[in-house]
Amino acid sequence: MRAKIFISFKEGVLDPQGKAVERSLHTLGYREVQDVRVGKYLEIELEAASRETAQARIREMCDKLLANPVIEDYRFEIEAEKPSGVSGQPKTGPKAES
Amino acid sequence: MRWGVIVFPGSCDDHDVYDCLKLVLKQKVEFLWHKDTLNRNLDCVVLPGGFSYGDYLRCGAMGRFSPIMQGVVDFAKRGGLVLGICNGFQTLCEAGLLPGALVRNISLQFVCRPVYLRVEETDTPFTSAAKKGQLLRMPVKHGEGCYYADELTLERLAKNRQILLRYVDSKGHPTPAANPNGSLDNIAGVCNEDRNVFGLMPHPEDAGEKILGSEDGLKIFSSIIAACGKQESKAWRA
């Protein structure tokens, strides 16, 4: 399975990087831009027996390491690695015998 | 007393702290590799500045999971003195030993310059050798030193007098211009509620000799030495 994780600053936390991007967009003429927040995006490939297990594990990873609850919020999506209907070998090659 | 200076992969001020303690203050000091367990005979553990684990993900985010950190948490819980400087401060915040977090400087630039600090509280093992309101001159050198905490935490810090150092101008005023990184309330250093864990962004170890431009950093280390001299039962050496 694959988890797509989005980490962003909590409201109230200064985001000078976002401000700098906002100023650049204004300079380029995109006057409609009201606010820019720069965050992080992570993709994690993982093995999990079920979607629920994957969710629980990813939540734990976010709480422990990936996000800092003092300054950041996170959300994530879990998707099956291969869209259904697409056949073929796993891209890492045949699995080792267990 | 015995000092330990933790060496993380990416620490770069470990030797500065070591030299300041050993050569200037004639202290017993040893390096502690981050994969080791914490020596139980220490009185003060220092987490030095640098870029542990390359500052990947967030500053201090991975350093806090180094094997030695569990020992540091236990040591702090037993009342042992823990000092975090710069990256060490970031790591202590990430580990939850200190409140708040340090984020990107508001200027987006790395700052490297001397600053004035005002000593706000002196009833701690880290500042007792200074006078309340005294100004100390030390360098800062960081890209992510902007102190942030939510309002509730800031209120609690003020109420418990946990803010030990503020960035000020040469006259002692905490002005925006004197704030090198955009820290809330000009906060340069905070301690925990029990007052045995202290983190600061400026570098006392780089202000320990006249030739470096200032000896004011010694106030921090000599406070710790005095506190450990007074302490009769060293409960943290469990």
What topology emerges from the helices and strands here?
The complex is a heterodimer of chains A (98) and B (238).
Chain A: E1 2-9, H1 16-27, E2 40-45, H2 51-66, E3 72-79
Chain B: E1 2-7, H1 14-24, E2 28-33, E3 44-47, H2 67-77, E4 81-85, H3 87-94, E5 101-103, E6 111-119, E7 135-142, E8 146-148, H4 151-159, E9 163-168, E10 187-191, E11 197-200, H5 218-230
Brief account:
The complex is a heterodimer of chains A (98) and B (238). Chain A is 29% helix and 22% strand. Chain A has 98 residues and is of the alpha+beta class.
The strand count of chain A comes to 3
Average pLDDT number of chain B: 95
- The count of β-strands of chain B is 11
Strand content of chain A: 15-25%
What Rg of chain A, in angstroms, do the CA atoms define?
19 Å
Uncertain stretches of 5 or more adjacent residues of chain A: 93-98
The neighbouring-strand order within the major sheet of chain A is 2-1-3
Global outline of chain B: globular
The count of helical stretches of chain A stands at 2
Largest sheet of chain A: 3 strands, antiparallel
Mean pLDDT of chain A: 87
Which structural category fits the helices and strands of chain A? alpha+beta
Folded structure, characterized:
The complex is a heterodimer of chains A (98) and B (238). Chain A has helices at 16-27, 51-66, and strands at residues 2-9, 40-45, 72-79. Chain A is α+β, with helices and mostly antiparallel strands and 98 residues long. In chain A, strands 2-1-3 form a three-stranded antiparallel β-sheet, covered by helices on one side. Chain A is elongated and about 50 Å long. By secondary structure, chain B is of the alpha/beta class. Chain B has five helices and eleven strands. In chain B, the strands form two sheets. In chain B, strands 2-1-3-4-11-10-9-6-7 form a nine-stranded mixed β-sheet, with helices on both faces. The mean pLDDT of chain B is 95. Chain A binds chain B through residues 12-14, 16-17, 20, 65-66, 68, 70-71, and chain B through 57-58, 61-62, 65, 93-94, 100-101, 103-108, 146, 148-150, 182.
